[in-house]
Backbone:
């Protein structure tokens, strides 16, 4: 298939977030699967993402890396999908996209790795403490049907994926508000399609 939009991914990675987003915008795209430790670290791919990590996208001559940035980019590149609010309404949209990419990711990673920030050092750590991040996020997902208000947006693809994985892998508290929020997202046709595509690309375990 000839297309100017390419997804660089591995089916067992955060690339699933971007696949979901691509299915939401309904864009035609081609997928390149990269393997951990080999093609992901090869010079050809390091020219796309010097971090040697997936996902990344190339859209014509534009390369975007970092899941949250890719979700935001695709929402703007394909405005007909209506996945980004008007500029004047983007306060919550940007806040939660960046909150999830920064404080939420870091809080979950530290907790998973058993890193505890001493109380007297929390003021210098971007997320403060894990419990506070959970409380703030719990309120946010309970305040409106979607994270940035009444309409589903790219921020839901990103933050919803974190919540889904957090609940699935036990890296986040199983709070009813998180479960109710994910229930509103999980059967979106684009999410189901993306999961099916990534599952089909996942090597089967014997
Ligand atoms: N901050 C990046 C994280 C990307 C990332 O860590 N990807 C992992 C897979 S989920 C990866 O490619 N790891 C391979 C490696 O580090 O060698 C994003 O949000 O896109």
Residues:
């Amino acid at each position: 298939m000839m297309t100017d939009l390419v997804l660089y991914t591995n089916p067992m990675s955060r690339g699933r977030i971007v696949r979901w987003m691509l299915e939401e915008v309904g864009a035609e795209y081609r997928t390149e699967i990269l393997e951990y430790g080999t093609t992901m670290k090869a010079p050809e791919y390091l020219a796309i993402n010097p971090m040697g990590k997936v996902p990344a996208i190339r859209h014509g001559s534009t390369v975007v890396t970092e899941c949250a940035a890719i979700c935001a980019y695709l929402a703007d590149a394909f405005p007909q999908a209506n996945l980004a609010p008007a500029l004047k309404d983007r306060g919550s949209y940007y806040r939660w996209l960046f909150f999830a990419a920064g404080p939420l990711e870091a809080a979950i990673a530290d907790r998973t790795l058993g890193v505890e920030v001493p109380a007297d050092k929390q003021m210098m750590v971007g997320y403060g403490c894990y419990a506070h991040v959970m409380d703030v996020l719990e309120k946010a997902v309970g305040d409106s049907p979607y994270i940035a208000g009444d309409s589903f947006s790219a921020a839901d693809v990103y933050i919803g994926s974190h919540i889904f994985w957090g609940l699935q892998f036990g890296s986040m508290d199983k709070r009813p508000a998180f479960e109710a929020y994910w229930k509103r997202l999980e059967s979106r046709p684009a999410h189901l399609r993306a999961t099916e595509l990534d599952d089909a690309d996942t090597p089967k375990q014997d």
Q: What stands out?
A: Helices lie at 15-25, 43-46, 67-77, 91-112, 130-143, 154-169, 176-186, 189-201. Residues 13-14, 36, 40, 52-55, 66-67 surround glutathione (CB under 6 Å).
